[in-house]
Amino acid sequence: MSKLGFIGAGPVGTAFAVNLSKRDYQIIGIFDVIREAAQRFANDVSRCQIYEKAQDLADSADMVFITTPDDIIPKVADGIKWRTGQSAVHCSGASTVHSLETAREQGAMVGAIHPCQTFAGREQAIANLPGSTFAIESEEPLKTTLTEIARALNGDLVYLTSEDKALYHAAACIACNYFCTLVDIATDLWQNFGKSKAEAAKAYIPLLQGAVNNIASIGFPGCLTGPIARGDVKTIQSHLVALEKYAPDILPLYRELGLKTIPIGIAKGTLSEDKAEELRSLLENELK
Question: Is the pTM of this model over 0.90?
Answer without folding.
Answer: yes
